[in-house]
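Figure 2 data, in text form.
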Amino acid sequence: MSGLALPPLKATFVVRNLVGGGVGNFTVEVHPDWSPEGAARFGELIYNHFFNGCRFFRVISGFVAQFGIPGDPGLATSWRLRPIPDEPVVVKNTRGRLTFAAAGINSRATQMFVNYGDNHALDGEDFAPFGEIIEGMDVADRLFAGYGESAPGGKGPDQLELLRLGNHYLQAEFPHLSYIERVEANISAAELSRFVATDIESHNFPLMFKVLLLVGFMAVSFACWASHCYCCRRKKSDELLLSCS
């Protein structure tokens, strides 16, 4: 890809609402040789100022700090329709490395996480790191973790509600979350555009793919609904038989 001819992409995250107050920075260096698709998508997000205002909505001490859902629900939806393909894991998920989150095969889009520890279990689950924090890990360690795991498993933000309502939901119910004010790249906008140019077209999946993706989602949703209805009817029938016996 054309980005390999450029200086290594380094992105400095300016973060607010840190534990202890104030503002701090941490810098990520991107490694296209670790994850070409992941590196290109990250560069594309930086180029589009995607991260401005994003909250670190899932911060679990010793594990990960997850972010990458924008405050605008419409923007979140548009990017979710542009996933990137999976890649082999070239390097391990060790402390300070950044990796895209995923919810299935070829589902990486915008969500990612900072590894707080050496999460080797993630290596076998196809989570491929694309970059690492080279400066300011102490700032990343100060991201607010008081809400813990996301709902429904924990008391933290519900990702579905975040996707539906955006930052209004987080500001109202989880005001202490640390957030990204802006991201500053070490290369110009023109160079950043070159960094991602060769892969942007491959990420613009044809309309038919999007239609099939939507149809598949609707089919799965209907199957789950039908199964739920059947189970409810069966349960009521069993209860009726039990009460009559």
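Caption note: Strands lie at 10-16, 23-30, 58-60, 64-67, 97-100, 112-115, 129-135, 150-151, 156-158, 179-185.
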